[in-house]
Each structure stands twice: as structure tokens, then as C-alpha cells.
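Listing 4. Sequential folding, example run.
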Amino acid sequence: MTENGDRARPPWTVLLVVAAGILSGAVGIVYAVSLIVDRDDASVQADTGLSSGGLVAYGIGAIAVGAIFVAVAVWLAGGSSFARWTVGWFTLLHLFQGIAIVFQWYDVSAWEGVTSIVVSVVILYLLFRAPPTRAFYAKT
């Protein structure tokens, strides 16, 4: 809060993470809807290894996860410490996933792992070490 009782405006560091969260959630929702729409397409079933019912279930779950991403991002902009720590923990998990990919524990390109590591480190820095962010969460 500011001196006159208004809510403090989030700094650019928080807004950048919020925008990434909203974008990620929205893309996840669009992807999920496309799975549900294309659930009877034989090539989609072959690519995913899921049946029509499995694609619907996966799509519904992915819509829920995307909606949660968007909600947490909005709460993050409002100064929620819970949202900040939630994003931090999930980003830490994403960092560990990137390390696993780099060491070939998953069958994908090592560059995907490097990208995950770099993005995770940047997000963690922006949320917990960047001076504008620390000042913002100290006030809320």
C-alpha cells in the first residue's frame, strides 16, 4: 500500500513475470481446446498415444492448469506473497526439469533443457532478487 492507502503499482519486474504467466496459461488453454476439438483425428491420437476419451480428459486437465496459471499471475500482480511463492516453487521444479533434460534423462533436445534453465533462473531472479520486486513485496 502507498501512504494514501492506494495499492502500490507492481514494478516492471513483476509485470514481466505476470505477462509470461498469463501468456503461458492462455497458450495452454488454446492447446487444450485444440486437443479436445481434434480428439477423433487419427494422427492426433497416434502422435499423443491417447484415445479420444484420453484426449478429452487431458484437454480438460490442461484447461484447468492454464486457468490456474492465469489466476496466479493476476494474484501476483496484486502483490500476493502466496502467488509469489507458488510461482517460485513451480519455477524451481521447471529448473530441475531443465537440468534433467540437459543430462538426457528425457528424450528431447538438450537445448530445451538449457532454455528451461535460463528462463527459470531469470524468473527466480525477477521474483526474489530484483530490487524493485523486493521493495514491492516489502510494501504489500
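-- end of first protein; second protein begins --
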Amino acid sequence: MSHTVEFAFNAPGSLVEVGRVVSSTLGVDLQPYEGNAEDLYSRYLQLELSLHTCEYEDDLGIDFSRYRFLLSTRTAWGDAGLRAYQLEATALAAYALLTRGTPCEGILIDDGQRLLARYTVSTNRRVQDGVSGVLVTFPGHFNELRARRGEEPG
């Protein structure tokens, strides 16, 4: 069974333009997956990384419809060992994009079902998590995210 951690966000521009910014910020090379220009794909720290428009419906109290884009990391069953850092890698990707000014808000979701963080950015590019109500600092934020998934802090 595969597992995803996703960052839904808003940003100006088309999918291709946002893909260029994500590629540059994360040091990846997002390309159309199997020729599909609506699904950009790369590898990020050996995780499957995709960027596409957010088409999820609001569910379980998660307001997906507010967001245009979805950046997703996925681990397949055979790559389950990568899950040891998948959450942290995705949170860092979101943080990097937020502090570089691409999106100004977004949500971090576990497997499309659990809201882990609701990010907003102040005018001085400081990131706040609306779930906890505090500024995001590392490694403390990682521990909070793991606790929200019901895991022991790592």
C-alpha cells in the first residue's frame, strides 16, 4: 500500500510556472509524468514527488477547495523504508516554498485524510502553524507533526 503526504497551496501562475518555481526551490526537475502535462513528476530525496492542480473535494473538515495546487510525496509499498523521513521531507519542502514567497498559505495533509498543519506566512516571511498557533521552528515542528499522527516524536 502506498502512502502520501501532501501540501495544498495557492500560488500565482499556471501549473507550468509554479512547477518551475518548485523545481528551482527544491532542486528537482519536475517533468510531465508519462507525457501528462497536468501531472508534473520528479524524485525528491528518493520519494516520488508530483505537482498538479488540487482536485480533492472538501472532506473530513479539510478545505481542499481553497487551494489550487497539490504537491505530493508518495512512497510505494516497496519503498516503505522511505516513510521514516517522508513527513519531515514534505514539511521542509512546504517550508522552503513558503519562505521563498511562492505560496503565502497552505495545508499539510497525511494520506489525504488528516490535517497536520495549516500554514500562513507573515509579511517578514515567518511561517506560522494555525493548528498549534505558533511559529514554525525545527526540529520542534517535526515532533508536533508526528504527535498529530499519533506517533512518538523521533
